[in-house]
Amino acid sequence: MSYGQVSPESTQVPTCYRHPDQISYVSCHRCGRPVCPRCQVSAPVGVQCIECVRNANRAIPSAKTEFGGTARSSAKPVVTYTLIGVNLLIYVLQWVIPNFTQQIVLVGALAYWEPWRVLTSAFAHSQGSLLHIAMNMYGVYICGVLLEPRLGRMRFGWLYFLSALGGSLGVLLLSDPYTATLGASGALSGLFLALFVVFRTNRTALRQMGIVLLLNVVMGFVVPGISWQGHLGGAVLGLAAAASIVLIPKGSQRTTLQFVLLGILSVVVTGMLYLAAVTVRFPLA
């Protein structure tokens, strides 16, 4: 009986498809290509190569929040904490840098030449009372932990900034152009009105928030030093932004529609801020 022989020249040693210098007798369970230990990913059955794992992950639908945002593995409201941190940092700078507060507060008569004030004023707070920043940051925290996980980070951040700009717009349109205004109250008013939209089907929550809203409205007109104009502007923009996010029905185009509406709101409020600044600009400059 004769036995066949295998020629050494015809024998091909398997090598990793990503590292040809690495010999490997282990193959990917999906594509069958040899993979070295550096390219192996453990799977319930055998191993898979890095590319197959990456392609499989792309095919998995990403988890969404209640209103279309990207769900995160961490439940921490990162944007909320960041906004609070920025407010606290600005407050420290107000104490450290001379005349810093005067450079960032909103004065309607100066907004045309110094447009940054319409946003920076929303992160500045009164140095005469720690209660001002403490109450505002507590409100941002409460609203943030309720809204951010439901809306998603980008939508929540967009809502906050639109509300802040809305507060500045209310001040420009309704306040004395020579009065200085500062504080996150406009943005906070927008977040608070957004809660009404998000929890509109929860009657118990609506009653509780309605009582708080009524008290805030009364305080805005009775207590001196509170800018009801900023509260009103922030509330209107916050309500509009929240409706643009929450009231869009689920579907493949929901995210696109949400961002289009938020973009339109952004353009509109920016245009109105410009026109208001032109109207009240300092006449002697």
From TrEMBL:
Q: Which UniProt keywords apply?
A: Hydrolase, Membrane, Protease, Transmembrane, Transmembrane helix
Name recorded for this polypeptide: Rhomboid protease GluP
Which ranges carry the Peptidase S54 rhomboid domain? 113-244
Gene Ontology MF: a single term: serine-type endopeptidase activity
Membrane topology note: Multi-pass membrane protein
> From what organism does this protein derive?
Glutamicibacter creatinolyticus
The keyword Amino-acid biosynthesis is annotated on this UniProt entry: no
Where do the TM regions start and end?
78-97, 129-147, 156-174, 180-199, 206-226, 232-248, 260-282
> Which GO cellular component terms are attached?
membrane
Q: Indicate where this protein resides in the cell.
A: Membrane
Could you say which protein family the record assigns here? Belongs to the peptidase S54 family.
Q: Could you tell me which Gene3D superfamilies the record lists for this protein?
A: Rhomboid-like
User: Which GO terms of type biological process are on file?
Assistant: proteolysis
